[in-house]
Amino acid sequence: MQAQGGKFDEMFDGEGNTRPAYIEYCRWHDEQPPEFLRRKNREADDTFRRTGITFNVYGEDAAEERLIPFDMVPRIITAGEWRKLSKGIEQRVRALNSFLYDLYHRQEIVRAGRLPERLLRGNEAWLDNMVGFTPPGGIYTHIVGIDLVRTGPDEFFVLEDNARTPSGVSYMLENRETMMGMFPELFSRIGVESVSNYPRRLARSLAACVPPAYAGGKPTVAVLTPGIYNSAYFEHAFLADQMGAELVEGSDLRVVDGRVQMRTTRGYKPIDVLYRRVDDDFLDPLSFNPASVLGVPGLMDVYRSGGITIANAPGTGVADDKAIYSFMPEIVEFYTGEKALLPNVQTWRCADKDSLAYVLDNLAELVVKEVHGSGGYGMLIGPTSSAKEIADFRVKLKARPDNYIAQPTLALSTCPIYTSKGLAPRHVDLRPFVLVSPEGIDITPGGLTRVALKQGSLVVNSSQGGGTKDTWVLKD
C-alpha cells in the first residue's frame, strides 16, 4: 500500500517506505498468513456484536441501532509526538476553564475587546443561572475531548473542542481490550502506553471535585443518563460499571433535605458528584425546560448552594460553539500569556460581511458547519456536494449567516484499514480525552481515532458511516 497522492499517510511515506512508528507493526503484519488476518477481522466484528457496542442513529425515517465499525489496524503515535501534543492539549484545556470562569464573572476578555459580546448574546448554550457562580474547585470542564486532525509530519490542528459532554471514551477502551484479546503477542513485542486505567482515573478525578462542605469521607459519584434509548447509553452504563459508580436516571433522584439523593432499598442516599450525560436544557425542569422528565426538579438550587458537583458544569457548551472556537488562539493567549501550541484550522466567520462574501464565492471548495452543530449533521462539504446541494445550502447561509462558520477542505492524514484486498488508506481524526480536577490535568495517552471507512470520504462520524481504531502511543 502506498500513500494517496497529496495526502500524508501516517504509515508509509511517498516512496512506500514504512515510517518509524510503524516499523515493528509492519514486520509483524507481514509475518501473518492472510487467512489468520481474515479470521481475526471476523472475530473483531463478533466481539463487538456480543458486547453490544452499538449506537442509535436519529434523523432518519426510523431510528435504528447500528454496530460501531471497528478496524483492527492500529493508529500509532510516537512518544515524542505525544509529548508535543500533550503540551498543546493541556494549554488549551487550562485556557478553556479560565475562559468559562471569566465569561460567567467579569468577562474581562470582552472588556478587552478580544471577543465580541454578540457571541454571548443570544447564544443558546449560555446559561444565566451560572452568572456569578463558581463550581466546586473552580472546575467547569471536568472531562474534555479535543478533536485533532493531522496534515503532515509535525502538523496537527484542533478541529473542535468538546467541553460539555464529550463521548466516545468507551469505544477507546473496548478497542484496546479487543486488540489485546486478539493479538496479545503484539503488545509483548511493541511497548504501548496503557489506556485501560481510564475509568479508575476518571473516578479519582471526579471524587476530587466533591463540594467542600462534604469533603473528607468517601464521596458518592453517580452517572446521570437519559435512559436506554439514548444514542450513547452503552457508554453511560459502561463507565458507571467500570468506575464502581451508580447509574441513575432522573426518576431515581429527588431533592431531600437540601441534597440531591438517589433512591435505594434502604431509602434515599445523598450524591456528591453527578457526572451528567443529559443536556443542560433537560437537567432541571424548574430552571430550564419545564417539560423535561430526564432531570431533577430543584437540582440547580442544590448546585448553586454547594450541595453537589455537576460534571461537566452547566453552561460549558458555550465553549463548544464553533464561532467561539474561531477565537481560541486569542483565548489561549489572553489567559495563558502564551501563543497557542496547537493551532486552529483556518476559519471564516460567516457573521462577518467580508467572510460571508468569500464563503459564498467559494462554497464548492469549503466545508461549512453550523456553529452549534455536531455529529456531522447540518454541514456542507463543498467538494463532494452536488450543484443542487450547494445551491440549497447557499439559501440557508444567506438567511442565517451568523449560524455558520466555514473552513478549508483539509488534506487529512490517512491511516491504513484492513480490507479483503489488503491495507488501504482512509482519512482519520483523533479525540484525546482529558480529565480536570483541583489536583491537575490528566491526559490519557491515546484517545479515540475515528476513521472514514468510505474511500475518499472526509466524514469520520459514526453517524455518517465512520468507524473507530485503537490508538497506540508508543513507550520511549
TrEMBL record:
InterPro entries: ATP-dep_Glu-Cys_Ligase-2, CP_ATPgrasp_2, UCP005522
UniProt superkingdom: Bacteria
Residues covered by the Circularly permuted ATP-grasp type domain: 74-452
Pfam families noted in UniProt: CP_ATPgrasp_2 (PF14403)
Name of the protein in question: Circularly permuted ATP-grasp type 2 domain-containing protein
Species, as recorded: Erythrobacter neustonensis
Upper lineage: Bacteria, Pseudomonadati, Pseudomonadota, Alphaproteobacteria, Sphingomonadales
